[in-house]
Amino acid sequence: MTATAFTRDGDYLLPPPRPADRLGAGIDPRDRRRLDLHAALTAAGIPPRPEDREAIEHLSALSAGINSTIHRWLRHTL
Description:
Order of helices and strands: EEHHH
Oligomer: single chain
Distance between the termini: 34 Å
Strand order of the largest sheet: 1-2
Number of helices: 3
Helix content: 40-55%
Number of strands: 2
Radius of gyration: 18 Å
Shape: elongated
C-alpha cells in the first residue's frame, strides 16, 4: 500500500516504508498489551470509550497469559 502526498505543486505517491530505516526502540510489554487490547475490543465491535481508559490500563498491567485469555474471550474461541 502506498500513501499519497498532497502538495501545492500536485499529488504524488510516497515510496513504501523500508523496514531497515525503522527505529530500533522496542515497546514496553505493558504498552503492547494496551494497544493489542484496544485493537481486540475494536475488532470485536466494542470501540473503547474515553471512560474505559482506567479499565484498559489495569487490564494491561496483568500478565501476558491473562491478556491472552481476554483476547480469546473477545474472539469467542476456546
